[in-house]
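[Meeting: bench + compute handoff]

Bench side (C.D.) handed over the final construct sequence. Compute side (W.E.) agreed to return the predicted structure before the next meeting so the bench team could plan truncations. Sequence as handed over:
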Amino acid sequence: FCEKIKNLFSNLNIDDYTKVEKSAKRIFILGMPRSGTTLVEKIISSHSKVSTVSETNFIPEKIFSRIHKDLDPNSDVLKKFLNEDFAKEYDLFLKSFNINSNVIIDKTLTNYYYLGFIKIFFPKSKIIHVHRNPKDNCLSIYKNIFDTPEGWNCDEDELAEYYLTYQNLMEYWNKLYNGYIHN
């Protein structure tokens, strides 16, 4: 999946699809579990003009369900999706939280898969990538019991592979969007 995402955004001119942002300012906090994302979220959301919706999974669920099979830059399904007003759909979702703040934080950790789409639909958003020492991070994941064990977080080999895949994708995004991501 990560290789398909990288291939897509290496062959896609996002300027052809980038939207004009009309709504509230957004901060997307992402990274691996146990990396410090919750601490960063709490610090930023302590400001009176900032609210958080925490881990909604809205973006991964909506994007993955629509286009996971169509990650070819020439796919009609993908082109149709990129021309939709996904930001408006996201804003409608956010209204259900009854937030009146100027700035809204979404701390869905797996948004790192979808940074290219976030850049298209929310071009003025802030991306905060929280990371820590890989060994410390993986040990913390491995020794903690999660509400929903996903396999990769319960097996040393799968955890190492997952972390390397995540790290590789974040290196790709940082090269592609130099300066857009706050690490």
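W.E. noted at the follow-up: The mean pLDDT is 91. C.D. will use this when planning the next construct.
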